Amino acid sequence: MSEGSIPDEEWERFLREAAAGTPGAPEEPSARARMVTRRLAAETGPPPGWRTRTPARRRRGKGWYVLGLLVAIGVLVVALLPGRLTGWWGNGDPDTGSAPLAAETARPDQPPPTEAAPGLPTADDPFRGSPARLWSDGATGLGLPVARATGWMTKAEVARALDRSRAFLVASSLDPGVLRGERPAKAIAAVNPQQRDVQDYLAATFTAPTRENSPLLLFSRFDSTKVRLAGDVVKTRGLITYREGERGAVEVRTDVTYVYPLVRAASGSDEVARTIVRREVVMSWDDPAKVYIEPGTFSLVSYKVDSANGGCDTSAGYFTPAFRAERAVTGQGEGPEADPYDRSTPMDTRMRDADGVGCGKASRL
User: Fold this and answer.
1) What is the longest distance spanned by two Cα atoms in the chain?
2) Which of 8, 197, 287, 354 has its CA 20 to 30 A from that of 159?
3) CA dist., res. 255 & res. 242, Å (int)
4) How many domains does the chain contain in total?
5) Residue 258 is inside which H or E element, if any?
6) Which of these ranges, 56-60, 115-119, 296-300, 310-314, has the smallest mean pLDDT?
7) Residues 228/253/110/92 CA torsion (nearest 10 deg)
8) Which of 159-168, 284-293, 353-362 has the lowest mean pLDDT?
9) Do residues 127 and 259 lie in contact, with contact meaning Cβ atoms separated by under 8 Å?
């Protein structure tokens, strides 16, 4: 008898009781019942719950290879173009697909990239096609370094000097009235009145401007009868640093590029021209115990300017941008070509390259 079989005597008794209808006699299991019984006996563990589902395992195949390749490509793109991808998720310019640039903390080592599809600026989008599209607006682009005690000043006094240095830049190069050609009285008041050579320059530059005594060395001005700003935004990018100067002074060096979008003053004009001005101003916050100086003012150490599409004749005392038709006729000058958005070249080098060659050419505007 094999294991699990029923003895003949038991089977015969079962048949007799079933035929006689004996109460409580077991019924013969059906074929389906016997099949289910055998299946349950072969299974291990409890049956699955009615709300559970065990998904079928997928076999490895070509789908996994393709997915792995796509992931690898995605990682490579993120590594090479992080800013562009950031823009896709709404943190940058929706048209350029790039995130706004962080403030400069050191001089860049190369010019900004050229736009893939620059296009022409419009009154609604005056910075189209320009690297300045990702620069900061106005004073927000004039980031200040962390203050620390330097020279004769405490940490708090250095912080105040940095704030006042930035205020001078705003008053001289961003103030709407000054941009319209008004006299920069607030900016002038910040300059040490005891610095006679500078005061003589400031007195002459607005009454009888010349190439050597041009107000444009320190101030951005446009003739409001000819041009006006396109909108109310001037793009800026700059670096402000400081160190201990002569006689314990705190010397603040500012190197800022301003991008001014302009349209003709005539009503209905909508063609946009851009004037790019890079200006370096070095200010000395002197110790009044060692230098004759009015409290709250600074002495000018040096100031220089380099501009593109601002006109070659600075004796007028205004930047004079040329529009497309004018540039097509007059050209851009005979000097060396330079990128006005390039902040990787020190100002001294840029000025030396342009010295004595007249009006230079801008590689892009």
Assistant:
1) 137
2) 197
3) 12
4) 1
5) strand 250-264
6) 56-60
7) -60
8) 353-362
9) yes
Residue 310 belongs to a domain: yes
Record the tokens describing residue 1, joined without a space. Answer: 């008898």
Contacts of 48 (CB under 8 A, 6+ apart): 54
Could you please report the per-residue DSSP string of 46-64?
PPPPTT---PPPPPP-HHH
Query: Is 73 part of a structural domain of the chain?
Result: no
Q: Are 305 and 279 in contact (CB under 8 A)?
A: yes
Residue 45 in any domain: the answer is no
The domain of 225 spans 123-362
**Cα gap 190→218, rounded to integer Å:** 13
Q: Taking the mean position of all CA atoms in its chain, how far away is CA 250?
A: 30
224 closest CA partner among 123, 319, 336, 120: 319
Task: Provide the 10 A C-beta neighbour count for residue 260.
Answer: 27
Distance in angstroms (rounded) separating the CA atoms of residues 250 and 262: 37
DSSP 8-state symbol, 116: S
CB atoms within 10 A of CB 62: 7
Average pLDDT value for residue range 236-244: 97
**CB of 313 closer than 8 Å to CB of 322:** no
Which of 32-41's residues contact partners 24+ apart within 8 Å by CB, and which partners? none
The single residue listed with the structure tokens 């892009």 is: 364
Mean pLDDT to the nearest integer, 126-138: 95
% helix, strand, coil for the chain, step of 5:
35, 20, 50
- Joined together, the tokens standing for residue 61 give 């195949």
Q: What percent of the chain stands above pLDDT 70?
A: 70
pLDDT digits (tens, 9 = 90+) for 50-72: 323 333 333 334 444 444 555 45
Take residue 307 and report the two structure tokens written for it.
Answer: 């501009």
| Cα 270–chain centre separation | 27
Q: Are β-strands 361-362 and 337-338 bridged in parallel, bridged antiparallel, or unpaired? A: parallel
| Amino acid letter, residue 165 | S
Q: Which residue has the tokens 């004039």?
A: 142
Distance between CA atoms of 349 and 341, rounded to whole angstroms?
15
Asked if the structure places residue 301 within a domain, the reply is yes
